[in-house]
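Figure 3 (text version): structure tokens given as input.
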């Protein structure tokens, strides 16, 4: 009997240690939350460095050390533990890491708005440039990465320096007048969602993503305005064969990043790469040609209001034109 008790106790202890060892990482991950993320419409979030993606929807999820976020027809607001707020605009991808005491935010493509309080620990960078802000004052602005890797920075509050990481490796001062590295892209006046120029009139051909989500509209000149919820979403996505067929016509150099767009009848109108819109008549051009002839920066109707403006657009869109086609709206 004594021997049996001696053998059972160590086995129980080993089992307990095993269970604790497997539960501690999960507990550690929860306690290591860097903040919260909330979104509207097409936003996905990965908490394991891009291995598995979760739709953010209207939920709020914790931001962990290996968080990746990608948006299509929606936006997200990230509230970090140090009081910083980041706005992820449509068709953007970014990564958040915490190698030490700072929150490293790497914008791969698209637009990112930021409001940093005094003492913020957020460090924002792209593959081509690093943003240097002053921790002694409140700062707000926007950084954008367009097709081809050009980076633009515009400050609405405070000033910041932009350190070029490739090429000439210049250091530029960004303020209300935006700066770009390495060169100023075409349609630079429409790169930022916070642009102060008046938006075009809200009338045109409704445009949808492959999932059937209402993305915005094309005006008479063929210019795309991104306004999620411009009209009702379709009841079903476009056929997979159709999406694959038009995607195959996109230049291979940008195919992985491209989002084909359709009108309500299923006709292909062009594709987006980040915030750059390529109309259909030039969509099949050779790699790089689109950015020189016909490609334009898509207007972000969200403006400086970010997600709030998008939510309002989605709410009021029910009163607009109701598409009628084989792809019936909800």
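Below: residues designed for each position.
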């Amino acid at each position: 009997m004594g021997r049996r008790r001696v053998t059972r106790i160590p086995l129980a202890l080993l089992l307990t240690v095993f269970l604790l060892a497997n539960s501690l990482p999960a507990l550690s991950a929860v306690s290591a939350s860097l903040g919260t993320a909330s979104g509207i419409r097409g936003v996905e979030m990965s908490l394991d460095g891009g291995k598995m993606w979760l739709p953010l929807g209207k939920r709020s999820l914790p931001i962990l050390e290996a968080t990746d976020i990608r948006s299509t027809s929606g936006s997200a607001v990230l509230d970090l533990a140090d009081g910083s707020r980041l706005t992820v605009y449509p068709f953007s991808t970014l990564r958040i890491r915490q190698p030490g005491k700072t929150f490293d935010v790497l914008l791969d493509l698209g637009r990112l708005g930021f409001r940093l309080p005094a003492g913020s620990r957020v460090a924002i960078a792209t593959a081509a440039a690093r943003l240097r802000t002053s921790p002694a004052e409140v700062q707000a602005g926007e950084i954008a990465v367009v097709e081809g890797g050009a980076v633009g920075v515009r400050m609405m509050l405070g000033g910041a320096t932009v350190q070029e990481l490739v090429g000439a490796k210049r250091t530029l001062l960004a303020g209300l007048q935006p700066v770009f590295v390495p060169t100023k892209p075409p349609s630079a006046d429409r790169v930022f969602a916070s642009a102060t120029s008046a938006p075009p009139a809200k009338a045109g051909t409704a445009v949808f993503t492959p999932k059937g989500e209402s993305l915005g509209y094309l005006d008479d000149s063929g210019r795309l305005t991104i306004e999620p919820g411009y009209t009702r979403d379709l009841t079903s996505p476009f056929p997979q064969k159709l999406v694959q067929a038009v995607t195959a016509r996109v230049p291979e150099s940008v195919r992985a990043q491209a989002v084909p767009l359709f009108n309500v009848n299923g006709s292909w109108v062009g594709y987006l790469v980040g915030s750059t819109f390529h109309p259909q008549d030039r969509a099949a051009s050779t790699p790089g040609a689109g950015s020189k002839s016909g490609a334009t920066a898509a207007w972000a109707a969200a403006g400086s209001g970010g997600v709030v403006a998008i939510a309002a657009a989605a709410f009021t869109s029910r009163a607009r034109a109701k598409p009628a086609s084989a792809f019936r709206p909800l």
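Helices lie at 2-31, 240-247, 307-316.
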